[in-house]
Amino acid sequence: MIVQEIYIGTFFENLESTLALILLVVIFIKLSVTYYCAVSGLCQLFRVNNRTWIALSLILLISGLSLGFDNVLENITFNKRYYPEFL
Asked: 31 to each of 59, 62, 78, how far by Cα in Å?
């Protein structure tokens, strides 16, 4: 929504699509680097030479957790209601 409000002359009228594409690329790179560092750190922590099983396990865990909530507000509500019981 913020990107739609940007207006820099007639040439950049559709700037929102360009910025959305740039944001998607940046988010993909950030997640890729984070995932690589997590797999590398777990392999070093547990002294595993073959990264395949760690990488597959971690991607399955991340995929399962990402399907748990429809949006961030449900996640925050769940954390406020049930998370203190597990501490």
From this structure: 12, 11, 24
pLDDT at 9: 59
Residue 75 confidence (pLDDT) above 90:
no
Spatial separation of the C-alpha atoms in residues 38 and 72, rounded to whole Å: 23
**Which among 49, 28, 29 has a CA at the least distance from the CA of 39?**
49
Structure tokens at 86: 């597990």
Task: Give me 12's structure tokens.
Answer: 């950049």
C-beta of residue 43 within 8 angstroms of C-beta of residue 55: no
Average pLDDT over residues 28-51: 96
Burial 15-46 (b: 16+ CB within 10 A, else e): eeeeeeeeeeeeeeeeeeeeeeeebeeebeee
